[in-house]
Amino acid sequence: MNRIFNYIRGDEYPNQTRTPSNRHKLSHLFESLKLFCKYLAKVLKHLFPSFVSASSILFIILLIDVVLLEFVVYRVGLFSGRFYKVLSDRDLVAFWPLAATSIAYIIINSLMKSIKDFITNLLSIVWRKYITLGLHEKYFQSKNFFYLQHQFDSNDDIINVFIDGQNSSSNSKMQITNRRPLGIQNSVEPILGDLNCMEQNVNGMSEENVVLDNPDQRITQDVKNLCSSIANIVPLILISPFVIGWYGYQTYKTVGYSGPLAVVVYFLVWAMINGPLTAPIARVIYKQDKKEGDFRFKHMNLRINAESIAFYDSSQSELNKMNQTFNELLNISYRRNWKELMLKLFINLSQYFGGILAYFVLAIPIFTHVYDDYSPTDLAQLISNYSFKCQYLIYLFTRLYDILNEISSIVGNTKRVGELMEKMTNNINQSSRYDQKKLIDHQDDFCLQLENFTLQIPDAKRKVLVKNLNFKFKRGENVLISGRSGCGKTSLFRAISGLWNSYSGQIRYFLDPNEIFFLPQNSYFTSGSLLDQISYPAQRQNLGNESSPKIIEWLAEFGLSHLLERVNSDLTWVPEFNWSLILSNGEKQRLSFLRVLYHKPKFALLDEFTSSVDQQTEVLMYEYLFKIECSFMSIAHRDTVKKYHQIELKFTNDKNYDILHIN
Q1: Which segments constitute the ABC transporter domain (predicted)?
Q2: For a pLDDT cut of 70, what percent of the chain falls above it?
């Protein structure tokens, strides 16, 4: 059990700093168990949604099958002794019924074991379905996927939203400490860190502000490992005490207390030998998993940036870096192999010595004439039966030891998944409280207003991008946002869209914030048909007779008619290729601009949406914006776009700004 809570505290792993605790060891253990049980309860709600759910029924069937399988295994194990007796007595009459019975039991044993494996895998799949779908629902709710992927070491959120004259102010300060490195694989990752520090909210940090590493890995890998581990070992945990007690009693009946005592001592001796050899290997596996992740990332990075690397003609440079990363992986793999040599040696020794332990134990009563009244055939049967019981009891203790080691993985995965559930729930609750204060006052003359607006980067340094901005955006007076790169133009859009709350002052909305359409410089293209790319982010709809000619006209107007040929002139046909890979940067911007025409928003935030197109196409884009009567704020660096705006909001490098009226 100490090994399990070493995992909880992170003691098994290198370079893990912990806040020292003055609590007594038992108190620390209790707090760790308390926190684990809290996360386990969250997971169990998904594993068993009701008593009549598919997972509950499958679990009961699995438990019954495991119990019956142990009974069948016991019966099969005794057949060897019975065959010894029948063959030694040359009893042909008893041989054939025994042979038929043994064959039947073997078939039943094989069938039940196959059913056990089938139900275990099926239960793991069902559990993964329940948890993953539940996580997905929360992951894509209230933009959780964005906030979990953009966490900072320190944050001092000052949220002031002013909608329809209602001031919503919420100040929450937090300081993130001991952030774990990203990119660590799950197998021997530092699992729980210092639970007591988290429970006490060190430095005033609340649980909802804890930085989570790799939320995508928690959903894709940790959930899978958790479901597989629970399905495999929980039934065994429930029946192991009874099975061990039964076989211990059977060995006691045969040779007395020396039978079960010898097995227990044998198990403890080898556990004490193998235990210290495991911890160093765990640390090496931790490093190896990290190197494996680095190597996979190198290949993924090469795939994503293949065209740029080819243009740079930097194949040799990338080859050297790739081989360097791979050599680091090989070196740690060699180290692991050498360290495992001694461990495997003692494991093999324990297995083979276990095979003859029964004969050493039986030698005592045999040579002390305890079984002198047994016939040779009866003694052969006794030796065979006891050998089976003793070896199976050793196997049960070994399995129990493996189960305890596996529990550490369950503890870690449960904590990681439960922590993610809790974090997303907190984000949703915060967003819900925030949305409840959004009272919409529809005014035809204005879109939004910034009052005493000071924007900061939400990281530890809290760099100020713009200070005390006061600006009122009137419908029809389109605004050009200009300034040097890095001065905060796109960051302003993040604040208006609600993605960044690292600002003071007020944002007053005169329209529903959900009606604001954002068009980034580098657009995202989802999987699906050409219609899906144009209608994004709306879900796919049936293409009406009126929409089809307009879309075809837009494609022709912006020089994208050749995309129709790629989809066999069918806007709803789903191709196998990746849209992001076949489109140039200019095509991406033109195709993403059609989303504005498709949705016809009242207000749009346009972030350098013409940076990769020619001036003629740029003129056409702005003309279409006027046709659909869309008010917009756009970020641009070209002077040629000024004529399409009435006001220029120019950011300077000294955190100030200028508001210029364009004639």
Answers
A1: 448-663
A2: 82
